[in-house]
C-alpha cells in the first residue's frame, strides 16, 4: 500500500517535470499512471470484483490524505496539460477540473480551467460562474 502511494507520487513528479519541459503528452501519461496506482487504494471507489472480501486495504488518515491530494493534483495537472495540447479536449478539461473542485471547491486554478472549458463548450453562464469564482479566489497581486 505504501509502495503504491510512493509510486504514484513518483509518477506525478515525473509528470510535473515533463510539463515543465513542454512534453505534455508524456506528462499526461505519467499523471494517468499515478492515478492507476491509486485506483485500487481509493476507499471511495467500488471494488472491481464485488462480493470478494473487504473493499480494499485500510488506509491510515495520513495515507488517505496523501492519496486524495495526489489524485487531486494529478487531475488538476491533467487539465493544465490538455489546455496546452492541440486540439484541446475541453470536455476532458471540464471533467478533470470538476473532479478537483469536488474536493477543493476554492481551487483557483481548477475554477479557471473549468471556466475556460465551459466557455469553449459554449456554456457561457457556467463559464462566467467559474471564471468569476476564480477571480475571487486568486491571491492578491497575481
From TrEMBL:
Annotated keywords: Repeat, TPR repeat
InterPro entries associated with the record: AIP/AIPL1/TTC9, TPR-like_helical_dom_sf, TPR_rpt
PROSITE patterns per record: TPR
Transmembrane segments: none
TPR repeats by residue range: 108-141
Gene3D superfamilies: Tetratricopeptide repeat domain
Pfam families: TPR_19
Similarity remark: Belongs to the TTC9 family.
Protein name stated in the entry: Tetratricopeptide repeat protein 9C
Upper taxonomic lineage: Eukaryota, Metazoa, Chordata, Craniata, Vertebrata
Amino acid at each position: 500500500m505504501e509502495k503504491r502511494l510512493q509510486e504514484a507520487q513518483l509518477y506525478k513528479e515525473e509528470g510535473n517535470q515533463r510539463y515543465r519541459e513542454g512534453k505534455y503528452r508524456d506528462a499526461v501519461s505519467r499523471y494517468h499512471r499515478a492515478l492507476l496506482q491509486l485506483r485500487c487504494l481509493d476507499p471511495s471507489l467500488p471494488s472491481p470484483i464485488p462480493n470478494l472480501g473487504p473493499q480494499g486495504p485500510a488506509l491510515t488518515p495520513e495515507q488517505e490524505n496523501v492519496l486524495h491530494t495526489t489524485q487531486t493534483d494529478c487531475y488538476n495537472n491533467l487539465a493544465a496539460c490538455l489546455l496546452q495540447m492541440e486540439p484541446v479536449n475541453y470536455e476532458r478539461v471540464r471533467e478533470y477540473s470538476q473532479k478537483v473542485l469536488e474536493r477543493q471547491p476554492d481551487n483557483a486554478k481548477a475554477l479557471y480551467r473549468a471556466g475556460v472549458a465551459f466557455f469553449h463548450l459554449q456554456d457561457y453562464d457556467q463559464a462566467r460562474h467559474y471564471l468569476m469564482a476564480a477571480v475571487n479566489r486568486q491571491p492578491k497581486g497575481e
